[in-house]
# Entry
Amino acid sequence: MTDIERRREAVALAQTGGEAPKVVARGYGELAERIIAEGRRHGVYVHDAPELVALLMQVDLDQQIPPRLYLAVAELLLWLRDMELNAAPREHSRP
# Structure
């Protein structure tokens, strides 16, 4: 299957407080591209994990992710933290 034949999917998660992340946007095709573009426009890191996206596409909008996905999403959040730490401006020591 070529990239053109493959159907693009995107899911956006948000987390507030101590609750599990919620699915706040999801879509296929052009809508998926718009979700990704909007995230990037706001400085959100985009992770390409087709297997995880396929599972998250099954979660209704405004619903928390199910416990069976906690580990996978926790690994994603660790990746995000590492990306943010690596992108943070570094202070240079002065002589």
About this structure: The first helix runs from residue 29 to 41. The mean pLDDT is 85. Residues 9-87 form a domain with the name from scop fold (CATH 3.40.1690.10). The first strand starts at residue 9 and ends at 14.
